[in-house]
Each structure stands twice: as C-alpha cells, then as structure tokens.
Task: inverse folding
C-alpha cells in the first residue's frame, strides 16, 4: 500500500526493525545498571514506555522522505542515506545530553553505534522497497 508515494508496509517494517535493534542494544546488551551508569539517569517512571514506539515510527517516516527526495533506488543508497541521517540528525541531537546533561562519553559511543545501525538498517529496508 502506497500513500503519497511512500510504501506504508516498508515504513512499518523499518520502524519495527529500528525498535527491535534498540531493544537488543538497550535491553539485552546493556543491563539497567550499566545504562544508569552511562546516562546518569535513575530508573525513572516506566509508565512512559509505550511512547517508545513513536521515535522509530517518526524516524522511518523521515527516512522515507529523505530517500524519496534523494531519488536513488536500492538498499545501498537507502543504507547510506540512513547512516548520514543518523549521524547528522539523530546523533547530533543526542550529543546535547553529553554537552548539557549527565550522559557520559561511553554512552555517547553507544548512542553513536545505536543510531548508525538503526538508521542504516531502516534506510536499507526503505531503499530496497522504494
């Protein structure tokens, strides 16, 4: 199904892949204690967890727009678009937590890898389905 030239199924699959990779990184590979030590944040209120699905959906929609505007088909072009978007926008935004907040340099490295992988995979999915 296409909507305004975007493949809705591809966006959904990219968002699910993005979310699954985040789960693997932040819930499986890193323990809550490690996460707390890297970010400086406490365990917090878990009632906001359902809202965690919103960022991957918005990222997949944004990537779909960028890939469409770039007008280069294929998974490799999508992957490169995703990597650049992850670095220049997502990682740049997360850098604020290091500069002005409690995030450590170690978390910054984890977040960089997280964004490069998530955006790259989502971009490759969207580029392949273009």
Result:
């Amino acid at each position: 199904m296409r909507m305004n030239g975007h493949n809705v199924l591809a966006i959904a699959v990219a968002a699910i892949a993005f979310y699954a990779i985040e789960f693997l990184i932040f819930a499986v590979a890193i323990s809550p204690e490690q996460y707390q030590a890297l970010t400086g944040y406490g365990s917090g209120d878990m009632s906001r967890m359902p809202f965690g699905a919103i960022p991957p959906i918005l990222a997949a929609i944004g990537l779909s727009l960028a890939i469409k505007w770039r007008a280069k088909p294929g998974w490799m072009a999508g992957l490169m678009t995703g990597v650049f978007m992850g670095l220049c926008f997502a990682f740049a935004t997360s850098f604020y937590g290091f500069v002005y907040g409690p995030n450590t340099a170690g978390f910054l490295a984890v977040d960089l890898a997280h964004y490069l992988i998530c955006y790259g995979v989502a971009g490759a999915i969207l580029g392949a389905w273009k």
Notes: The chain has a mean pLDDT of 91.
